[in-house]
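notes to self, project folder thing:

trying the whole complex as one job this time. last attempt i did each chain seperately and stitching them together was a nightmare. two parts in total, labels are on each line so i dont mix them up again. if this works i'll redo the older ones the same way
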Amino acid sequence: MTTSQLVEQIHLKQSFLCIGLDTDLKKIPVHLLEKQDPIFSFNKAIIDATHHLCVAYKPNTAFYEAYGIAGWKALQRTIGYLNENHPEIFTIADAKRGDIGNTSTRYAKAFFEDLQFDSITVAPYMGKDSVEPFLAFTDKHTILLALTSNDGAYDFQTKLIGGKELYKHVLETSKSYKNSENLMYVIGATKAEYLLEIRKIVPDSFLLVPGVGAQGGSLEEVCKYGINENIGLLINSSRGIIYASEGKDFAHAAASKAGALQNQMALVLKQMK
Amino acid sequence: MTTSQLVEQIHLKQSFLCIGLDTDLKKIPVHLLEKQDPIFSFNKAIIDATHHLCVAYKPNTAFYEAYGIAGWKALQRTIGYLNENHPEIFTIADAKRGDIGNTSTRYAKAFFEDLQFDSITVAPYMGKDSVEPFLAFTDKHTILLALTSNDGAYDFQTKLIGGKELYKHVLETSKSYKNSENLMYVIGATKAEYLLEIRKIVPDSFLLVPGVGAQGGSLEEVCKYGINENIGLLINSSRGIIYASEGKDFAHAAASKAGALQNQMALVLKQMK
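result (full assembly):
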């Protein structure tokens, strides 16, 4: 899926919402536990109820790996269901991978070729030759961690190197990587005020912004500082949407929460005209 | 497995060798491809031939994920085989994970509880609250990336923050994490001269050292600068051992390569007395 197709979808749906599928058997409605594949059953119901309100889904691989083979199968079924029924939706494997060259290539194959995701999140710590193997898949997108939404972000990401924060070095350095036009970046919504500076370095890139909702980030703030001509934002909400209700109305409740965010987004898009 | 049990094994086997099980269907002997589970068949043969020469095995998860469900099953069978037949061997999931708190907990469950690994490699970029969920499993070990063996290590890891390299900040900061006594660190053998400085910061910790062999690191150099009273080193070799031969003698050839390294290690241990 190309960036321009993504932008087209944003305008069509009046939404730049990404829904995080962090599916946890301890949090999904108990009646689903009787199903043969409770994780997929939950995801399918959420997707069926919300696909018209969002432009992206982001399963976090940790939640699937925690259930071993059954989890991996549920992930495979989920991405398969999305690609078959909603090929216009951008899919993100939130995997935060990264390793030396030949090994990163294996991860890229796993998520781009085997599972057919449109994109994957990647950690930058190991540098250029750990990221470029993902970028070598030129019809896919690589979403590099820059400034994350958690408190631990202040441990290293905001430390000054030659008067400039590490995450800014990550943004700048990554622009010189081969096929860097296919990079996007993770920027936590809990640090919206940083977006002004970030946009000076990567004015045109898409930013995947987690942390709205459960983690306390503000949609208005993120849009105020982060939006660009192509919108350039994918705002993610996971727990705030998918666990809106523990009852049999969970999918309806999720759609209601997603709809509220989509409404806010439509307003933002209208004001841009 | 405790650190003192690991040290005991090192003295018993006169080896601090870790064998990396980076199993690639394109590189294993072709006659194995006829087996029902070629990846596990290869791993089992390598383990059967080398277990007396090493104290640790390190499957890199990327190689297994690249084969989807079949790969995940092969990883499960491999760790199961190791835990059943060689419980005295230290097992490392080379997964380089790391995410916000609740998500890191899921990864920790996947590798420590579901797969029953003794340890996992973790990326430090997201800081304290991304690492501590792994350390919360106090009978396990968390192996933090500090200075990696690839060229990309110079992109960010060696950059100066207040006159000190980022990887040194990672080492120092991580010492304040809860249960930090269960931390080990990845230090690439290709940068052996850095070990003098590193040992000033983490004198007692175990270091997992990849990059000897195929990547050009020197065993002598690593031992000269990195060894401590408890040995404190796990030297990893992957491709140099497991792909020593493409023929039917592959396991024997692997044992021969592993044996050569173990001999060198036994000499080093003898010189220490």
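what i see at first glance: Chain A touches chain B through 57 residues (CB under 8 Å).
need to look closer tmrw
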